Predict the structure.
Amino acid sequence: MSSSSGLAALGLSLLLAGCAGTPTSAPSSPAISDVSPHADADRGEAAKAPLMPSTFFAGDAERFEAWRCTPAQDLVTAFPAGELRLWSAHEAYRLKATAAASGSHYVEDDLSFREQGGEALVESDRGRLECQRDQTRTALTRAQRPGVMFHGRGNEPGWTVRLAHDAPRLSLLLDYGEREIEAPYRITSLDNERGRVTLASGRADTPFDLTLEARACFDSMSGEPFPVRVTLDVDGRTYRGCGQGIAP
């Protein structure tokens, strides 16, 4: 391949990394009193679970869908009423439904997503992607995970993380369920616009760091699609996996 064609392919493969489509923004960052396990202690009030970026959630969509595209790029979508939530390897986007002669069409600024019969054309000022729908996954619900605001998981060794919906506490199940950690957490950074949250342990005797990023993620064993990449650092070891927010 010539250097010029190689650069063109690279530009297309990064189509969604820097296009002018507006990344999803979420509600404003929670007040400090809402994210610290002890922030309300002086007032005798229980600490509340923090708000998470809306890009962690499917909205009212019932499933997440994986798309395999040319040039090579994998996308994840969810279709709540009247809109499209779209995750690439680099960003998360929210597009509005618009009139279409056939199939479905969603736009935001220069970013366009046309879908019909399991095929999609994604276009922006940077180029285009031709995509095929691959597998789908039913979105987790609060009925399936009572009391859980966020659920993440990974493999080899199998592990899960669950964030409580009503307080800044989480549960870690590590090494195929052989070890469990339940602890409060504090938010060390929160970027709603980019869909990125970092958490740290609220207990000195059980240190950990957890990073959640709104990016297309695929289970390393099943290939199932998720909207959030999860990175957990605990006991000098790094666990990687995928997850999703769970709305009430």
About this structure: Residues 3-24+55-138 form one domain. The longest helix spans residues 3-13. Residues 1-14, 18-44 have pLDDT under 50 and may be disordered. The CA atoms of residues 66 and 135 lie 6 Å apart.
